[in-house]
Design a protein that fits this description.
It is built from seven helices and seven strands; from the N terminus they run H-E-E-E-E-E-E-E-H-H-H-H-H-H. By secondary structure, the chain is an alpha/beta fold. Helix 4 crosses helix 5.
């Protein structure tokens, strides 16, 4: 009986030891017969992450956090993780720290950085250390939300101060003014459209006239080509040459006439000069004509003689027998 009790106690102790070992393995996330690899990641901060926290990939647990250490400079945190060696991780992998539940538990998740371009991962100079990024926890989000609420309340109070009844009335007037301006612009656009239509019609008529002019020029060129082909242009050129030669002859005649006219003008100028000299001599009283013009006695005698002749003629009319005596035998 005593031996049987000893066997039962020993068996119970062995089973308890086995359960403790397997429980510890299960709690740590270890898998028997699976090779593990060590990964390191660099973070600015790790939030509520603890040693033993779960490491996941695509939501599936693949390892645990082994250690959390500050860099010697204190500028970042290095997290060491043990993960399953048979898991194929992405080439551009990084580690994202985030709350795992609402009770403060955190986890590390291996992610592809190309899917999270908006996150500022903390790079490391050591290529074997993965870049990491830590999401803010709930307390920090609550603090940020409180700051946002405070800012919104301040903006709301300022809006209430700025947006009075007068402001609303001014906005209404501004909207009405905008409507009036819009109507005026619409009318202006309509008028401009009419003007543009008229311009387009004028351009169309101008284009038609230009087409007609081009057709006329084309016909003229055709006629010129025909004239050239028939020899008419040659005749025209010959006529022009003959006219030019006649014009040259006429020009020569005109030149000769101009020379004769110049000689005549010289003779006339000499004659006029001589007449001028004679007139000057007459005016000075030189010569017979000059003396006649300047001597008033001759003029007086002529006047008296004229008077006597007129008296004689009158007396002759009254008494013709006094002067004419006819005797017929």
């Amino acid at each position: 009986m005593t031996r049987r009790n000893e066997v039962m106690v020993g068996s119970t102790i062995i089973v308890a030891i086995i359960m403790i070992v397997f429980g510890t393995i299960w709690l740590k996330g270890l898998k028997l017969g699976t090779e593990e690899v060590t990964l390191k990641a660099r973070f600015r901060e790790v939030g509520q992450l603890l040693e033993g926290s779960t490491v996941k990939y695509r939501g599936v647990p693949i390892g645990r956090v082994e250690s959390i250490e500050l860099e010697p400079s204190g500028g970042a945190v290095i997290v060491t993780m043990s993960v399953q060696g048979d898991v194929k991780l992405p080439e551009d992998n990084g580690v994202l720290l985030a709350p795992e539940s609402m009770f403060g538990d955190w986890q590390a998740e291996v992610v592809s950085r190309s899917n999270l371009r908006g996150y500022d991962f903390t790079e490391s100079l050591d290529p074997s250390v993965l870049p990491g990024y830590s999401l803010p926890d709930m307390s920090r989000l609550t603090q940020v939300a409180a700051e946002i609420a405070t800012n919104l309340q301040s903006i709301s109070s300022r809006f209430e101060v700025a947006f009075t009844d007068e402001t609303a009335n001014n906005i209404r007037l501004a909207i009405e003014n905008i409507q009036d301006v819009s109507a005026q612009l619409t009318g202006l656009v309509g008028k401009q459209q009419v003007a543009l239509d008229e311009v387009a019609a004028n351009l169309a008529r101008t284009s038609e006239s230009a087409g007609q002019a081009a057709a006329t020029m084309q016909r003229a060129f055709a006629e010129i080509e025909t004239a050239i082909g028939n020899g008419k242009l040659t005749n025209i050129v010959q006529n022009v040459e003959r006219t030019s030669s006649r014009t040259d002859s006429l020009a020569a005649i005109l030149v000769a006439a101009s020379r004769d006219l110049r000689a005549t003008a010289v003779v006339a100028d000499s004659t006029f000069r001589r007449v001028g000299q004679i007139a000057a001599a007459v005016e000075r009283g030189e010569g017979t004509l000059g003396k006649l013009l300047r001597d008033t006695t001759l003029y007086t005698n002529l006047v008296d003689t004229n008077l006597e002749v007129q008296a004689l003629l009158r007396d002759l009319r009254r008494n013709p027998r006094k002067y004419i005596n006819l005797t017929i035998f």
